[in-house]
Each structure stands twice: as structure tokens, then as C-alpha cells.
User: Which sequence fits this backbone?
């Protein structure tokens, strides 16, 4: 009972930071330089503490083994949520120009909302938690919780840590900011529409909305979920 888990991080290199922007080019659209730099740092830190070399190596799934894309990676999802969240803002601003939304927080929050997934999806962590769930839980922390930790650790503002935490189930227990609501619904919408369009592996859709009837899609289901 004394073999407590000490987390090991590999060094954060310039190459690792560069891979973050290569996989999430929308990071360059974050106007505030401090937010942009720390968004990159958050992903670099999370990746360095995992078995994943870069974001596009993380499976395109909502949770480990659940809501699994038949084609595409976690980068595909993150970019889609960022684009959808900004389009939601644009839609309302075009009709109601008096609304106040921080676009930079929406974009940064969308790109960082799943920054805890390198930890929760790490095959080494999944195997460890599976081997003895009584030791530190299963998972020890969900990606939303670990993601909030990463955001605060690298100095991202509370507003972004809140989006990382509140976009997922944990958000049901707190009051959510306006920008968090936008990212949360963009995220959930993205997964549910992907499911309805037949873009998910049917056996992974157990936690999807029960009203979804996925459309059959002529697409090679054996294709790697990690392929771009
Ligand atoms: Fe997501």
C-alpha cells in the first residue's frame, strides 16, 4: 500500500510547444498575447505529463471509450468546438449587437476545454486505475477537473479554468459564466450532431442523448480513430 503514485513530466521543449499550434492553428487567432502563450503552455504541460506526444495523438473521444469518432482525433474535436462556439457568438451578435461577450475567452476556453484529456486518456493512467480502482479512484480526476488544475498552474485566468471545469458534468453543480455556457453548448452540440450524422462508433454512444437515431454512414468503421 506504500507505492503511491508520483507523476512524472518530461521536459517541455520548443518542439512540443510548436506541435500545439500545429495541431490547433486557431491558437494564433487568440488576440491577447498572454492568453495565447498560456494556452500553448497549458497544452504543453498536460502533454508532457502524459504518454501522448502531441494533441492529434489523443483519441477523438468525449470520454475514454465513449463517444468515439470513427475518423478524426481530439484536435478535430477541439477545432470544431472553437469554430462552432465563435459562430454562436457571431449569430447572436448579428441580431443583438448590444450583447457583451469576450470572444478571446470563448476561443481560448474552447481550445483549452479538454486540456485535461492527456491525463484522463493516458493509456498508462487508464491501466493503473483499472488495475486497482481502490487505490486512487477510476479515474483519479476527470479531464475537466485536471484541466482546471492545469489552467491555473500555467497562470491562465480563472475564467478559463472555470470553462475547463464547467464544460462537462461538473458544471451541473456550479453556476456557469456566459462564456462557459457558450463553450459547453458548442461542445455538447458538436458531439450530439456528430452522433446523429453517424460519425461515431455505435458501440461508444451509450452516454449520448437517448433520442438520437444515428444515420447510417458509408464509412470504413475500422479506420483508426487517431487518423486525421
Ligand atoms: Fe469537448
Assistant:
Amino acid at each position: 500500500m506504500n507505492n503511491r503514485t508520483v507523476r512524472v513530466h518530461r521536459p517541455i521543449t520548443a518542439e512540443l510547444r510548436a506541435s500545439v499550434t500545429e495541431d490547433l492553428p486557431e491558437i494564433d487567432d487568440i488576440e491577447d498575447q498572454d492568453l495565447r502563450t498560456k494556452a500553448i503552455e497549458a497544452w504543453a504541460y498536460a502533454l508532457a505529463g502524459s504518454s501522448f506526444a502531441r494533441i492529434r495523438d489523443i483519441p477523438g473521444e468525449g470520454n475514454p471509450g465513449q463517444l468515439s469518432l470513427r475518423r478524426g482525433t481530439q484536435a478535430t474535436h477541439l477545432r470544431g468546438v472553437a469554430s462552432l462556439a465563435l459562430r454562436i457568438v457571431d449569430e447572436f451578435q448579428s441580431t443583438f449587437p448590444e450583447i457583451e461577450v469576450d470572444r478571446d475567452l470563448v476561443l481560448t476556453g474552447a481550445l483549452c476545454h479538454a486540456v485535461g484529456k492527456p491525463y484522463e486518456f493516458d493509456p498508462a493512467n487508464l491501466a493503473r486505475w483499472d488495475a486497482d480502482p481502490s487505490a486512487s479512484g477510476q479515474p483519479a480526476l476527470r479531464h475537466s477537473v485536471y484541466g482546471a488544475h492545469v489552467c491555473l498552474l500555467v497562470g491562465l485566468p480563472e475564467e478559463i479554468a472555470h470553462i475547463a471545469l464547467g464544460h462537462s458534468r461538473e458544471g451541473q453543480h456550479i453556476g456557469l459564466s456566459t462564456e462557459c455556457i457558450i463553450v459547453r453548448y458548442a461542445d455538447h452540440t458538436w458531439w450530439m450532431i456528430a452522433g446523429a450524422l453517424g460519425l461515431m462508433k455505435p458501440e461508444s454512444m451509450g452516454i449520448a442523448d437517448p433520442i438520437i437515431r444515428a444515420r447510417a454512414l458509408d464509412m470504413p468503421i475500422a479506420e483508426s480513430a487517431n487518423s486525421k
About this structure: Confidence is low (pLDDT under 50) at residues 224-228.
